[in-house]
Amino acid sequence: MFDVLGIVFPIFAAAGLGFGLVRFNVFNQADMRVLGRYVLNIALPALLCGAIARRDLSEVLNAGYMWVFALGGLATITIMYLWVWLQGVGPARRGVAAMGASCPNSGYVGYPVMLLVFPDFAGVILALNFIVENFLLIPICLMLMELSRPRAGRSLLHVLGSVFLNLLKRPMVLGLLAGFAISLSGLALPGPVLRVLDMLAASSSALALVVIGGSLAGLSVAGDKLLGSQIALGKLVLHPALVAGALVLLPMLGLPVPDGTLATAVVLSAAMPMFGIYPILAQEYGHEGLASLSLMLATTGAAVTLSVLLAWMV
């Protein structure tokens, strides 16, 4: 019990610090946005690049992990989308619900957790999660939301191309691709360059959690409480359950699955609350209130669900 508390307490204490700093006007929301951009555009890309560049690709591209994470995410998207459709929810809100239930916060919450639980594998776990999220789960959810808009003559292929092009411009994806390119080339980065990447990466964990807490302090949570609660439950319960189910199912189909540390990590990764830019993406479709409410419920609820999962699995 104390081992679990030792993992969970620092995570939510740092987030609580961020919340308090904004709530009591030490920092404001504009400050959190600046700090968030630093984490998103500098610290996490440096972390990904350094973690991958110093490893052989065979260590990073774990097919079993990606199969399990991808299948669990796709199943979550499908079930959540159909579930809210049966309730008569509109197409844009269905896409928002599917994204909230299936896209975890691997960078701001997941990485700090993995750093405490599996310090030697945290960077690789983050890279594996980002590959599946940025090249599969997030594009599918964005497509579902985008299809709710009038296409004005644009083909489905054109919409899909626009989504992927925007994703490829993200600094985290560029950091990921740069790390793969260096690893594939067989070149070793000079020691001073690696130290710079490591210094920037070291700043990501605590700062990301402070930003998450500070961002929660300024969220507008006026939204559909019933649907918001369902999205939060989908993220914290349905998604990890389906990923755990994929661990059992895939060997029956002759497909590889991770074992040991990575098997635990893939389920824990799915159990993280949704990513921090979720309300921003939903805002483009007029549903930022629903997304903010869901994010608030999932992030606070994760204090309980993650504690239970860690006590059971670690």
Write the layout of secondary structure elements.
Layout (H helix, E strand, L loop, with lengths): L1 H22 L5 H25 L3 H4 L2 H24 L4 H12 L3 H12 L4 H25 L9 H13 L2 H15 L5 H12 L1 H14 L7 H28 L7 H11 L7 H6 L4 H26 L1
Helix pairs in contact: 1-11, 1-15, 2-7, 2-9, 2-10, 2-11, 4-5, 4-7, 4-12, 4-13, 5-7, 5-12, 5-15, 6-7, 6-11, 7-8, 12-13, 12-15
Membrane topology: Multi-pass membrane protein
Main location: membrane
Protein name: Transporter
Largest sheet: none
Overall mean pLDDT stands at 87
From the 3D coordinates, which CATH architecture would you assign? Up-down Bundle
Query: How many individual helices?
Result: 15
Silhouette:
globular
User: Helix fraction?
Assistant: over 70%
Notes on the structure:
With 314 residues, this protein is an all-alpha fold. The protein has one domain (2-313): Na+/H+ antiporter like fold, CATH 1.20.1530. The protein contains 15 helices and no strands. The mean pLDDT is 87. It is a multi-pass membrane protein.
